[in-house]
Amino acid sequence: MKTVAIVQARMGSTRLPGKVLKDIGGRTMLARVIERTSRSKLIDRIVVATTTESVDEPVVAESTNLKVPIFRGSQEDVLDRYYRAAEEQDADPIVRITSDCPLVDPEVIDQVLALYRREMPDYASNVITRTFPLGLDVEVLSRDALARAWRLATKPFERAHVTPFIYQRPDRFRLAALRADQDYSKYRWTVDTPEDLEFVRAVYACLGVDGHFGWREILSLVEREPTLAAINRGVRQKALEEG
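The structure corresponding to this sequence follows.
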């Protein structure tokens, strides 16, 4: 069994089409996610999980260019895509990363993995109780938990978002939550709109296009330069049920 990070990525996006391949400091957003995830000390392998649709051929091409294994599966049933990718990779546990988080922090990934290894829950994350900025999301789940969700989840948003069936049922799954030292959830560091992309590009421009900076440095930057955080402050995060 291997600890495998599965990064879901596709070209479709209602608010920012093709966002996964948008340029951030000379590299695609997908490349930024992969390079930051690869700095984790506890992940054995990274896989990009995209769809079988022809529109996602550019995702396959970029993943190949990055020398990252690819799994292709259902467009809408992302839970099925994850389950089958995990089976193919003999992954346990699975680390869920999304391609719209180009500021994901390898240290946070390892903190969630350390929590998982210490407590051995079905599911561990820093999103059950959100205290980290949106965009640092890391979820770790056992293959058994993923298989149970795959078999039992029926609601469209549970299939589309992979893990709600698990973390919304603490009576059926053992959960573990990583919390920050204080509540930073007001910060939005994910990419779903042009304003989000503008913000992330500004962060890389300020802290270095090599990407060798952590979330604490980003925090210091936005606290020092509040105009940066204002770029995408008005963006509304979509509810899970909205897709």
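The radius of gyration is 17 Å.
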